[in-house]
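Researcher: We're reviewing a set of sequences before deciding which ones to prioritize for further study. For each one, I'd like a predicted 3D structure that I can look through quickly. This is Alpha/beta hydrolase. If possible, include the structure in token form so it fits the rest of the review sheet.
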Amino acid sequence: MPSTRHLSPAALTLAATVCLTGLPAEAGTAGAATEPLDWKRCATTAKDWPVANDARTECAMLTVPMDYADPRGRTIKIAVSRLKAGDPARRRGVIVISPGGPGISNITAPASYAANALGTLATDHDLIGLDPRGVGYSDKIKCAEDPPAEPPPGTSAKARAKAVFDRTAASNKRCTATDPDFVRQLTTTNIARDVDALRAALGVPKIGFYGVSYGTAVGLTYRTMFDDRVDRMWVDSVMSPVMDLHAMDATMDAVAEKSFERFLAWLAGRDPEYHFGTTAAEVRATVFALRDRLDRKPLVVGKGARLDGDWVSGLLGMDPGGWAAAARDLATVREGRVPRSARTGPAASQVFGFDDTPLGMNTTQYNAIFCNEGTGGRDFEQVWADARARGQRFPGTGGRIEFSGWCAGWPWPARPWQQVTGNSPLQLSGHVGEFVTPYDWAVDAGNAAGGTLLTVQDGAHGSLSRLPCASKVIDFFRTGRTSGGTCPGMQ
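Model: Here's the predicted structure for Alpha/beta hydrolase, in token form for your review sheet.
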């Protein structure tokens, strides 16, 4: 689900009985699944299939309208996958798995989840995956962002931020112009319609759905539009039900600042190892001095990484599982060396169809998902003022331009969606200390869409499928039994 490409997930949903185009919800799949799916083994069909020794997963291409308001117009291809139930005699249905994004491939989800704590669901359910439109093996466009340029020494923080904003605007203008009709249709709303086209192609009246991070936005959007076609739905590490980019940045800063305060005490207790100070106050002063030093003289790594004050702030809000790595990186930079995590390698390519490899982040799809339906982020002065205000409220981690930074120069106004309460069985799970998709978002989504909320006692993004209480997920999909209360998290 964060927005500096390495953390962000993404969000979104839409109105109940009427789609954003004004079409009734039932029209969402009109003209979509006109051809049967031609299933073939992924390992021999999809070039460089990334799941080792996978002899079971099948792949196919699903044809859908590019624009569901024009179902007889241009079509696009969506890459889908299937892992058939291991025990056909016990098969009770299908579960679509949407593990995250935007901007990244999801098609290997069935094979991946069959190997984790949810794997027993693969005995009595077909597990279904797909690459959302715009990424992976599905139809997309290739358009690299403009490379960053190192600002002259002494450039102010605001001028640096404005240069990044302007570069993003230029990239967005160039990339959307490559195929504006296609980019305009890269929305969570349309991905949900694609899921329903897949349901129809599978020949089932209802689907189960398991979503994580940005996949929760796809799921809750689907439930908003097609509630009567949902069997059971579980969403973990839930996206905000309101796609307000400035508000999302503020929520993330608040969570990160709380983690920062705990990180100070943790570092103080490990001064013999990291040498930042023996009290929280000493650690704070040392870390802030390092941040100020890097703001004055950033450490530039190759052509793509700039280790400056914002880089330091980004490390300070990690959940406890990332504290040791953050401490190592901070200590390494303090000594004038480049941390391993910041070393750059060759960029992965973005490709088309089953004839090539679906590696890398598709930044055009990433930006489109947030900007076509999310509000905010268009005006630099507003973005900057909002960031400075958050920096005052949250001095350790606040003030970074996260979600609100990617919509510079976006050529279309946002068409926001709205979540509504449904009747189909819905279970949510949120992680109390999480930064990527803060726990408050799960609470807000439950208030908007209904369902039962399970509180996971950790700060690990999407960890539920790796925990003992994944048994609750298995029980839910087999019996419909929901779970409130709390669940032990990752230690």
